[in-house]
From TrEMBL:
<dbReference type="GO" id="GO:0005524">
    <property type="term" value="F:ATP binding"/>
</dbReference>
<dbReference type="Pfam" id="PF00406">
    <property type="entry name" value="ADK"/>
</dbReference>
<dbReference type="GO" id="GO:0036430">
    <property type="term" value="F:CMP kinase activity"/>
</dbReference>
<comment type="similarity">
    <text>Belongs to the adenylate kinase family. UMP-CMP kinase subfamily.</text>
</comment>
<dbReference type="GO" id="GO:0005737">
    <property type="term" value="C:cytoplasm"/>
</dbReference>
<dbReference type="GO" id="GO:0006207">
    <property type="term" value="P:'de novo' pyrimidine nucleobase biosynthetic process"/>
</dbReference>
<dbReference type="InterPro" id="IPR027417">
    <property type="entry name" value="P-loop_NTPase"/>
</dbReference>
<keyword id="KW-0547">Nucleotide-binding</keyword>
<keyword id="KW-0418">Kinase</keyword>
<feature type="region of interest" description="NMPbind">
    <location>
        <begin position="94"/>
        <end position="124"/>
    </location>
</feature>
<feature type="binding site">
    <location>
        <begin position="74"/>
        <end position="79"/>
    </location>
    <ligand>
        <name>ATP</name>
    </ligand>
</feature>
<feature type="binding site">
    <location>
        <position position="211"/>
    </location>
    <ligand>
        <name>a ribonucleoside 5'-phosphate</name>
    </ligand>
</feature>
<keyword id="KW-0808">Transferase</keyword>
<feature type="binding site">
    <location>
        <position position="160"/>
    </location>
    <ligand>
        <name>CMP</name>
    </ligand>
</feature>
<feature type="binding site">
    <location>
        <position position="100"/>
    </location>
    <ligand>
        <name>a ribonucleoside 5'-phosphate</name>
    </ligand>
</feature>
<comment type="function">
    <text>Catalyzes the phosphorylation of pyrimidine nucleoside monophosphates at the expense of ATP. Plays an important role in de novo pyrimidine nucleotide biosynthesis. Has preference for UMP and CMP as phosphate acceptors.</text>
</comment>
<keyword id="KW-0665">Pyrimidine biosynthesis</keyword>
Length: 256
């Protein structure tokens, strides 16, 4: 049975790599094949899940559930996601972490492009980010069966939104969008403090200014878009991490 599944996914994978992004979009579909090599299509109905060393079971699943987590840099998205994972069993996928991992991957042809964007607070083309996210979702589902995801720090601009909508929206159930609201001053202080030990090339005053400009000029419109769809759950992120999490808990507690 495993080999049947393996053969099936391999052939579907070739199809996926060939057709997943329109070659005309920015004329780079071939470029992204390296990332997509391991991306398998998300299941629409069911997936086989390994449960224990002595056997497997078929788990009938709906579409993977997705919560987007948005907010300015340093608003505490990652901190809260860790708590949500522990309490509610989601898998946390940080788009920024995935991009940093791809940047650091030996042989990545996108490393320089990703770093240039990160340092300047600009947004990486969606083809890269979306492929990394889809890949991570598929790997998680296959490895653990967990199909509930916190997608942290994505979508951040119109390009992200369009790319996700055309490629992924039909394959997932969008639960809601968690929006952490926090002032620029407070967020900047947090990131500068984090910068003392994070090693991040963008936790400095110059990059932070640019990241905030991108947030205001590009990401706020995406949050507004989801507000119009009544999907946004807004949280005051200026309090302590535990106090913020009290609010977060009420939101996840309301979910079925
Ligand atoms: N509620 C809070 N109060 C004070 N400090 C916080 C709070 N939440 C997080 N922090 C700290 O602020 C810094 C940024 O937090 P975190 O990494 O969770 O933010 P983020 O929104 O994921 O940031 P980015 O988008 O830049 O990755 C971290 O050093 C974290 O420990
Ligand atoms: O979807 C995304 C997410 C992130 N980026 C780039 O990465 C940095 C850092 O992101 P964090 O969420 O703060 O870890 C961000 O400023 C962007 O340059 C991206 O391009 N697309």
């Amino acid at each position: 049975m495993t080999s049947v599944i393996a053969r099936t996914t391999t052939s579907v994978l070739h199809h996926h790599i060939k057709h997943c992004w329109s070659a005309t979009r920015i004329g780079v579909s071939k470029q992204f094949a390296n990332i997509r090599q391991t991306a398998l299509p998300l299941p629409s109905k069911s997936i086989r899940v390994s449960t224990c060393p002595f056997g497997t079971k078929y788990s009938v699943m709906g579409k993977p559930k997705v919560v987007f987590v948005l907010g300015p840099p340093g608003s505490g998205k990652g901190t809260q996601c860790e708590k949500i994972v522990k309490e509610f069993g989601y898998t946390h996928l940080s788009a920024g972490d995935l991009l940093r991992e791809e940047r650091n991957r030996e042989g990545s042809e996108f490393g320089a492009l990703i770093e240039d964007n990160i340092k300047n607070g600009r947004i990486v083309p969606v083809e890269i980010t979306c492929a990394l996210l889809e890949n991570a979702m598929n790997k998680t589902i296959q490895a653990t069966g967990n199909d509930r995801f916190l997608i942290d720090g994505f979508p951040r601009n119109e390009d992200n939104l369009q790319g996700w909508t055309s490629k992924m929206a039909d394959k997932v159930e969008q639960q809601f969008v968690l929006f952490f609201e926090c002032s620029e001053q407070q967020c900047t202080e947090r990131c500068l403090k984090r910068g003392e030990s994070s090693g991040r090339s963008d936790d400095n005053a110059e990059s932070l200014k640019k990241r905030f400009n991108t947030y205001i000029n590009d990401t706020v419109a995406i949050i507004k878009h989801y507000e119009e769809l009544q999907l946004v759950k807004k949280i005051d992120a200026s309090a302590s991490p535990d106090a913020v999490f009290e609010h977060v808990k009420t939101i996840f507690g309301e979910q079925k």
